[in-house]
Amino acid sequence: MKGILKTSSAVLSVAGSVAASPVNGRSDIITFKGPFQVSSDSVHNVHIGYGDESFEGDVQVVYGACDMSGSHERHHELGSTFFRRDARPERLVWLVPDEAIHGGCLHAYSGSSLIGRSAPIAITRNFRKREDMSKISDWSGPWFDGVAYMQNKANNNSFVAVEKSKKIAIVGGGMSGLLTSHLLTSVGINDWHITESSQRIGGRIRTKYLANTTPDQYQYQEMGPMRFPVSTKYTDTNETLDINDHKMVFQLADTLNKLNGNGSSLTVNFIPWIQSSPNVPANSNGYRLPNGRIPSAAQIKANSSLVLPAAKPDDYDEEVVTKAEDALSAFYDETPERLRNASLNIYKAHKEAIERGLFHWSEAAYLRYHLNMSQDMVDYVAGSGSDPMWDLYDSVYFGATTWRTIDKGLESLPRAFYPHVQDKLTLGRKIDGIVYSNDTGKVTLTWRQNQFAMEPETEEYDYAVVAVPFSKVRTWSLPKYSSLLTRAIQTMNYAQSCKVSLRYKTRFWEHLDEPIIGGCGSVDIYGIGSVCYPSYQINSTGPGVILASYSSGTPARSLAALSTEDHVARVQRAMVEVHGDIAAEQFTGAFERQCWEVDEHQAGAWADPLLGQQDLYLPAYYKTEANTIFIGEHTSYTHAWIYSALDSAVRGTTQLLLDMGLVDEAKQIVEEWMGRWISL
């Protein structure tokens, strides 16, 4: 498609006076091909053609009555610019206002001469759509709305759709970057390139196949994300509701399977994930059974005395604790209805949480400054964390009664992507800067093959889509972004986690007197956290792998400082304490360890916004600055899940397409990929 360069109004006026050809009063020089039915308060591409191939000149496009005598009688203007003979646009962008009149026409003028007029256009009023969107969309807040987004762009700079041959950099080969590449290809934009700092794609997906085994040998564990909540059965009504968010993961798998040919070695298959199992170890607060073992969840459920009481503060007051717990519960107000609604639409739930003040308080701050509890009691009840009280989505997700994971490991997702990106992928290139030129409107990536070189290597692009955690981006040399975006990059908080997987000669845990069949438990041994057992190949023969430690938060930071040998030995001793001597007899010595804070490509496990960061920073991601768009789970409403990364890719790609004036393609992405929060 031919396009036209964006330019300022001053340049337009000069170009018009110097280069414009004389225009005769013909109404067929520009022809309008549609659409001829639109809705008010929406954005559309207007497709145009030319009755005179030699035409060049200033063009103003307006909407008004079909019989109006001049542009001064217009209802509203779409925009004006200079049409060059060698780069004439084939599409314009029309922001249809809410009060647009029905049955009018589009008119093209060059100076005072009419050079094109459309057939009458039917404009319908879509009251319901905009009313519904107003409940979750607000340009002043973090709800991305395509109409408002285009209204906030300079009129003439968004009037003409650009060509699809723009060169796009995708920085980061995680799931958000990979999906972005697919979305661009799906709408005919093929000049993109992925630059990845590591030697693999997949980002925080990190399936480890222990002892150099292959996926079909089933001796693996997930050192990154590992499961997907599917649905929840509510006992009060006996109804089962899907958790809509994560459907995007299943949609992506279906898409990749079709691309790769269903039944191929690259097929992504989902299998049940066992989240809860009765015989997993449980936190007993130091109590041990007579045989020295840690009690199971089933044993503690049957006998609560197997959990030792926690030490209490000197000023402990049971009545105050009860009051605090009741107050927090009332403030959260996670009613069954609210949980149901969040499972259906997390975006609406997010806005409601802001309106209810959940982002304005941490639990500790609420108890200390709203209920005036003592600091000691606050720390005992709620800890001293500064996370906002927005964890409804975790309540919904971890309340799921049906879960799925991916057969042979989540690594199957990036593996299925690889054939489609391998020819446009550079691995091992560590970007260290972004440079934007105001003169050319281009963005340049910088990197150094020799880290001591003063002058970097560079490559220039039209746009950069950055799918790299802010924990890494903040170390780069960057353009002068807005204050808000700069602060988001510099200060976004990241959670830490460490995982250790251990390989045993057999799956002995499935053959104990009280067999453990999948599921995750937790123990009270410091630094161990959760213990998860494989949900695949239950009761199979041969070696097996336990995720023997999944620790997050402050303990993970301490664990990351341990030597690998010390950390693994600590975890193996814990497995003996959980399972008995058989864990020592069966240990093969093979292990995998992942501490995300010290991962050179991530520097954090997932985004964990501090109090005030989530609602403040989200709007910054929805404004393209220096031709750069930021995506990744840290820019989404939810964090730590693959869905969060995919969600950001849909938003970021739609944002890029709107920047390019490709409204038709933006609508295609939204309609196909569950972009329910974007109104086009």
Automatic annotation (TrEMBL):
Which InterPro entries does its entry note? Amino_oxidase (IPR002937), FAD/NAD-bd_sf (IPR036188), Flavin_monoamine_oxidase (IPR050281)
* Annotated ranges, domain Amine oxidase: 175-652
Q: Which UniProt keywords apply?
A: Signal
Q: Does the keyword Signal apply?
A: yes
**A molecular function (GO) term:** L-amino-acid oxidase activity
As given in the record, the signal peptide range reads 1-20
Q: Which SUPFAM superfamilies match?
A: FAD-linked reductases, C-terminal domain, FAD/NAD(P)-binding domain
Has the keyword Signal been applied to this entry? yes
Q: Could you state one GO biological process linked to this protein?
A: amino acid catabolic process
Question: What is the name listed in the Swiss-Prot or TrEMBL entry for this protein?
Answer: Amine oxidase domain-containing protein
Q: Which organism is it from?
A: Paraphaeosphaeria sporulosa
Higher taxonomy:
Eukaryota, Fungi, Dikarya, Ascomycota, Pezizomycotina
